[in-house]
Please model this.
Amino acid sequence: MLSGRFFQFREFRPVVTKDANVSDHPENDLPLGPRLAAVGPYRCGSGQPLLVIAGPCVIEDESTLLSIGERLARIAAELPISLVLKASFDKANRTSIESYRGPGLERGLEILDHLKRTTGLPVTTDIHEPHQAAPAARVCDLLQIPAFLCRQTDLLVAVAKTGCAVNVKKAQFLAPWDMKHVVGKLEAAGCRDILLCERGTFFGYGRLVNDMRAIPQMQMLGRPVVFDATHSVQEPGGLGTTSGGNRAMVEPLARAAMALGADGLFFETHPAPQTAKSDGPNMIPLDRMSDLLHRLVAIRQTAIRQTVIRQTAEELP
Model:
């Protein structure tokens, strides 16, 4: 448990060295912006509390989601974090046609709306088609664009037109600096509150790795960056008809993201991951979330403290 007063938040500025051969390092030409976004009642980015997006992969039933939401709300009250409850109404990209997808748009949004009013937490869900954007935005405080769909212009424009904040996951095949085109599409359609999310890069078949440079490189686009710790350990299609994963690697990767100054963390969690209907192998057991978040916040506080000390020393005459 953390004791004493939490350290005052201050902007974590990534250190980027200008390379002589700029053409080989296009990320070095990206301007560092203010890095702020409004998400429901929260602000995420420079100098703001850690944004935590957490919940089950998919809505299994209302009672399970309510128990998860109530537990996460209690955890959020213990820590200097901004917590958004996450759950999907439809997992349209499951490995097998036989896999459970969720309750669907109408029923799923009804459940999310009830959870939002009951727990007091902002909510988010992912959408896969443009026609889902408007109804989802009437309930959700944040809309999520799946990694495979992050370049779909019609989907991005539809989300932007709702006026809702959006969290776009970087595709597993995309360079961090190429997310500037995703940001450009959203901005052109009127979106102001944009989060970018790192969730791993393909490394051969059925395996992902994380290039942690993606966090400061995407922050240089002037947008807050969220690190998806649970999907980063996913093994797509690794169990044949479903995806596998290695949840033992979730905390080490999340620790690295905190040390690097990520503005947010994304976790999927479930009371019993072994029986979850989607993504169980990479989800964090709900009863471990409190201790995990306390440890990660402590690392973030240390990183912020060291950054302030360094910046203060640089400002001295």
